Amino acid sequence: MDSVGRGIVLFGDVIDSRRAPERASAWLRTLRADLERAIPAAERLAPFGVTQGDEVQGLLVPDADPFRAVLVGSLHDDARPMRWVVSAGRIDPGRGPAIERTGPAFLAARDAVAAARSHRDRLVVVTGEPGADHLLAELAPVLGDMLADLTDRQRVVARLMLVDELRQADVAERLGVARATVSVAHARGHIRSVQRVLTALRSIFGAAMLALADADPAR
């Protein structure tokens, strides 16, 4: 992107990365590759980048779905504990990967990471739209906690349903297990509730982005 504009900044911070920096770095390289595959190029303003052992960073177009990236990272087979920050706002001109970019949205994201660490939140979302941000501040951490509480099997089922958008019967066929096995994992993991919270977050975030775009004189 060559001119000042709006974008969605995504930070994924590995929790307690200093305890096992090599494992954290390996995980972030895997995650970066998966995010590049999962997020269409048309939805990225810059390539994903990683900092040494700590974070993956992304920069998306204003109408992209940042929650897909959160799901990809949280529901991965090899996922490490993460805290995620989504920050929408102005970005400065520049090229290169997200870790080389800056602007108000990046500064807001950095502040949000610090706040997430202080409050031990797994997911923080900020848009700059006061009404939306009030709701997002209450709802986003709930989704983060729900994703973190899934067992390994529940995480696999959730990934196939929420990321790959398969039905329970299709999940059972993909995994080679009985439909009842998937149904139990779905129920015990409260995946229906996860989907409802996710839908609400997407709706609130999308409405905020539209309101901010309408109010932007540079649009």
Tell me the layout of helices and strands:
Elements: E1 5-14, H1 21-38, E2 44-50, E3 55-60, H2 66-74, E4 82-91, H3 104-119, E5 123-126, H4 130-148, H5 152-163, H6 168-175, H7 179-188, H8 191-215
Parallel strand pairs: 4-5
Antiparallel strand pairs: 1-3, 1-4, 2-3
Any key phrases for this structure?
single chain; 219 residues; alpha+beta; Alpha-Beta Plaits; five-stranded mixed β-sheet; 8 helices; 53% helix; 17% strand
Description of the structure:
With 219 residues, this protein is an alpha+beta fold. The protein has a domain at 5-128: Alpha-Beta Plaits (2-Layer Sandwich), CATH 3.30.70. It has eight helices and five strands; from the N terminus they run βαββαβαβααααα. A hairpin with a 4-residue loop joins strand 2 and strand 3 (55-60).
Summarize the structure.
The chain is an alpha+beta fold. 53% of the residues lie in helices and 17% in strands.
CATH topology of the domain at 5-128: Alpha-Beta Plaits
The CATH homologous superfamily of the domain at 5-128 corresponds to Nucleotide cyclase, GGDEF domain
Gyration radius, in Å: 17 Å
Uncertain segments of ≥5 residues (pLDDT<50)? Answer: none
Report the β-strand fraction as a percent range: 15-25%
Largest sheet: 5 strands, mixed
The structural class is alpha+beta
Amino- and carboxy-terminal Cα gap: 15 Å
Question: What is the helix/strand order?
Answer: EHEEHEHEHHHHH
Q: What overall form do the CA principal axes indicate?
A: globular
Number of helices: 8
CATH architecture of the domain at 5-128: 2-Layer Sandwich
